[in-house]
């Protein structure tokens, strides 16, 4: 299949040739003809599948071929995204794909001054990419009008709801013309998303390009068990030992991000970070520096987990597992994109076994465990089973290693003087326990 056979016009085909996009990805070959015809769309597609071009190309084409000219303060196509980073990235895609077209594209999001955005909107823009909160601010101040709106795209709808934008979205939807085309993209489809789709879409084409909630196949994933307090030490050890190149590292908290960044900088490793406490310009700068290869390590909280497109990122490391199992899929989706392969390594401590089991349940695969000599944890990570179960280790007699004494038999990798049996002092859990769902549904559940 070629892009020409999908019905795209010459200026877009020229751009795609310049970008060396040779064949459409599955989401593109399904979405482009339908969107060109004006159909609504409900697409289950993760980032990395080429979904942005899947909506941007046909939207640009329709705007080019169909009038009218955009009036002041108006927008003709609106793309809503959950995060500022994704808004900026989607804008870049529109600018790139639309480079030979007489259309204007712009992005608005919070964390930066609103005045330049109001000024820019005065002339009207053909494509506006926006985060819901800032867009609502602009709308309430009459800086943006939707009279000419013909297409609405909801990108990463599930993430927008996760981030608590439901009220803003409702208010925005009620301000939009009823007659319009709506395209909804979501990595996962909870009942709430389905309900939203039911209210917003008219006879949509459903497109599903990767198994729901499945982690990208091109990513090799495994975990290294480690004690909680030794995680950053293990990360620094692996970084040097394995001679890692660029790495995107996810930590659970802003504090954890800052700490690792400081340790890396103290070691002379170039590092930057992204988290919700940082002002927007420094978040964007960190991402740009990382993309440009000026920074070796980017440490981030989950704010960076979705939507970021970083070319050929070879490695993602989870310093901590995410609380929400679906975020794991998004995090590791930063690597192994658009046909390349990648690796995702998780440093997992005993406390995280429930999160681990939830991830394995969601992805329906057990993560291979690889011990790192010298980092075998004192607190073992209990075994898990597909289906979200945590299997309790058989009870063993307590043993302590006396520093300086010989290694116990059969414990080849154990660090002398650090080895204790798993902490047995805690109350016993049942032999098999179900993990909390972390907001996700088991595979095979109602879509
Ligand atoms: P997305 O899923 O939209 O974030 O896109 C993932 C990456 O794939 C981006 O870097 C795109 O530039 C790239 N891409 C999208 N479509 C194609 C294609 N048909 N051929 C090659 N690369 C593509």
UniProtKB/TrEMBL annotation:
Helicase ATP-binding domain sequence ranges: 32-207
Keyword Hydrolase appears in the UniProt entry: yes
Enzyme Commission designation: 3.6.4.13
One Gene Ontology term from the biological process aspect of the record: ribosome assembly
Pfam family, one: DEAD
Any single Gene Ontology cellular-component annotation: cytosol
Domain spans labelled Helicase C-terminal: 218-378
The keyword Flavoprotein is annotated on this UniProt entry: no
Domain DEAD-box RNA helicase Q span(s) in chain numbering: 1-29
Superkingdom, natural source: Bacteria
Protein keywords: ATP-binding, Cytoplasm, Helicase, Hydrolase, Nucleotide-binding
Principal EC category: hydrolase
InterPro entries, per database record: DEAD/DEAH_box_helicase_dom, DEAD/DEAH_RhlB, DEAD_box_RNA_helicase, Helicase_ATP-bd, Helicase_C-like, P-loop_NTPase, RNA-helicase_DEAD-box_CS, RNA_helicase_DEAD_Q_motif
Transmembrane segments: none
Motif (Q motif): 1-29
Gene Ontology terms for molecular function: ATP binding; hydrolase activity; nucleic acid binding; RNA helicase activity
Catalytic activity: ATP + H2O = ADP + phosphate + H(+)
CDD domains named among the record's database cross-references: DEADc (cd00268), SF2_C_DEAD (cd18787)
Annotated spans, Disordered: 395-447
Family according to the record: Belongs to the DEAD box helicase family.
Protein name (record): DEAD-box ATP-dependent RNA helicase RhpA
Organism from which the protein derives: Ectopseudomonas composti
Organism lineage string: Bacteria, Pseudomonadati, Pseudomonadota, Gammaproteobacteria, Pseudomonadales
